[in-house]
Amino acid sequence: MKGVHFLISTLAILASATFLVSASDPSPLQDFCVALNDNKSAGGYFGANAVFVNGKFCKDPKLVNANDFFFSGLQNPRNTQNPLGSNVTTVNVDQIAGLNTLGISLTRIDFAPNGLNPPHTHPRASEFLVVLEGTLYVGFVTSNGDGNRLFTKVLNKGDVFVFPIGLIHFQLNVGHVNAVAFAGLSSQNPGVITIANAVFGSKPPINPDVLAKAFQVDGNVVDYLQKQFWYDNN
Ligand code: MN
Q1: Domain ranges, residue 35
Q2: CATH number of the domain enclosing 118
Q3: Can you list the disulfide-bonded cysteine pairs (predicted)?
């Protein structure tokens, strides 16, 4: 009997764990929860030192209007004169307060010829990329358990590619003209970790012994890399 009870409680724990690891933003429990930039407009109810929660405070629904769901300006090409030759324009919950709790966001990515959106991951979102102009060489790498396989594709105007949540991915303009892509992401706040910036440009720097051993290189190489300016194109 004890064994049966143990089995049942183990199954119950497994079932709830499966629910908890569901990989997307939580579903809303109302039509919308337009984010407030601070908690003062919540009527001071939460006090000056409100705790951080998973999401943002909601605006009073009666005060919500169309502008809370509106953003303008994504038609404009962005400046790609930088070391990477790319520029990511983000439209997430920080730009559209009405995206709070909805689990989606958007970016426009501009590329100069040879421009690169360098290897990065989004800790909280899968990504759907659509090429509007130009030709991009894109790819992602699977996890260690899958053997770190590289999946790549050359995309032309109208082509779409998917980057699964958490996996390292990149896009390189291999055409002779500027390229433009739009991407949809499955979080109101996907986050970006650019690999080179995080590893070699952390503040304070990671102990060089850690990086020399991890990358199996001489300390001078690590020193050189840690002295570079790691441009953030986001
Ligand atoms: Mn991305």
Answers
A1: 2-68
A2: 2.60.120.10
A3: 33-58
> Is 117 marked as binding a ligand?
yes
Amino acid sitting at position 224: Y
pLDDT in tens, the chain (234 residues): 455 555 555 444 444 444 444 557 888 878 888 988 765 554 444 555 556 667 788 899 999 999 999 999 999 999 999 999 999 999 999 999 999 999 999 999 999 999 999 999 999 999 999 999 999 999 999 999 999 999 999 999 999 999 999 999 999 999 999 999 999 999 999 999 999 999 999 999 999 999 999 999 999 999 999 999 999 999
Q: What does the block give as tokens for 197?
A: 């910036």
Number of domains comprising the chain: 2
User: Residue 169 annotated as binding?
Assistant: yes
* Ligand 1 center–CA 29 separation, angstroms: 28
Q: Which of 178, 6, 35, 169 is nearest to 109 (CA)?
A: 178
